[in-house]
Amino acid sequence: MMQLFIGNKNYSSWSMRPWVLLTQAEIAFEETVLRFDNFNDASTYEQSAFKQSLRAVTPAGKVPVLVDGDLAIWDTLAISEYVAEQFPEKQLWPADRAARARARSICAEMHSGFTALRSACPMNIEADLAQVGALIWRDNAGVRSEVQRLVTMWSALLQEHGGPMLFGAFTVADAYYAPICTRLRTYGLPVTDTVDAYINRVHALPSVKAWIDGAKAEHDFLDFEEPYRIKP
Fold first, then answer.
1. Phi then psi dihedrals of residue 102, to 5 deg
2. Whole-model pTM?
3. Considering the domain 2-90 in this protein, what is its CATH number?
4. Which tens digits make up the pLDDT trace of 30-42?
């Protein structure tokens, strides 16, 4: 059975993507959670338990990592492509060639873009940061621009493909944007009714609900992942 190494569910947006993809597609895998530690201390980071555990699996030293036999695949996009190739019957990319190319394009855009939103609004599923989000929305033009890009992108895809997901049925693209949906919810950032309805549908997916439930059950407060809160 394949093994997926992930970080804390409350904080690790990149880990969430392949976990949701595999779970929603009902592809069997074993989950291994490696708790984040020492990220705020450069002098001990490379010697941390997190890094040492990952070094035994991949030279990249980052989560997520998918292990299939003797093969280790790191990077979320590489994992998604590998899984789609291994399980073609799951139709994890759209069947239509043009739609498939567009789905890959928006995943690549997520992979390399939305830096203002990701930086100002780090994933924190169990927190309610709507008051912080209101200040971010007021003061951060980059966040406003990137949320508008999301609204435009998602609205066009939902209209073109008829929903309920971005390309009709669930695909890699929905798994890729699931952590962004949680960010928009956590920080209460304003979106249109159409996009809000899509966010609700993503949150209702069994895989996303299971991830969120797992994140809320961790009760693991990591100060270096908490720019807006202090430890209770």
1. -70, -40
2. 0.94
3. 3.40.30.10
4. 999 999 886 555 5
